[in-house]
Request: fold
Amino acid sequence: MLEVNMLAPVFRRLLGIHLVLYLLIVLGLIVLSSSADAEFVRSFQFDVVGRLPSAEHKIVFANNTGLREEDLYAVSGGLLRQRTFRIDQGNSSYLYPNINDVDGQLDHAQDFMMEARLQVLAIQGRGGAYFQAFDGVNGYRALFTPIGVALSTNIGDINIPADVFQFHSYRLESPANSNALRFYVDEVLRFEGTAEPTTTLNGFGWGDGITARGNSADVDWDYLRISNAPVPEPSTLTLLGVGAVSLLGYGWRHFRKGKGVGGFLE
Ligand SMILES: [Ca+2]
Reply:
């Protein structure tokens, strides 16, 4: 009895060390998985007043309007304010790294996601506001119109009705190594089909996308984000979490038990 009680603190210490090690490993895995994601993500919040997107790494301002970037776009109040509705010729948008370049970093073998939150203030035609990406195999494109969003698919444009004049989030998604295209408005799946094949481009862009006269828009962009990396399996994280919680419970029971016995002896 005495020997068992002498061993108990040693056991508890060992258990404590194992518990701490286990938790450190779990934390490490979570940090590793999130940083692996972050490596491939570009996220634009437009939260720094006056910092136009062309100041961001490898973002190119493509502009054939004859006007300056600061005449067409402004950043304030957490928004990128696109004001191209009154521009009756040319277009101007933000591209990474260059829309005519095949050497981008988007990988068809990784999960793809591109999401923007925005409200349209004024729009005519199609594509005066847009966002799109190419991964070397497919193109993923959302073109805004007065009545919704025109999605590019393998069978041509498909109109998804939406009230573009209110703030909504819009997301394009395609699982790794697939030609599938999913489109969400405010997290609700609105379209599932096949993406448009486009093998010669790699990169992404957003802004005023159409040069033709009569296609223009004023838009407030709240954010724009793009990821292209495997998302950690929820089941793996859940398993790790369950393991951590049960170990904690196990340790807590032994801690109470040990304390109780110690109290009795004292
Ligand atoms: Ca914002």
Summary: The first strand starts at residue 42 and ends at 44. Helices lie at 2-38, 69-72, 234-265.
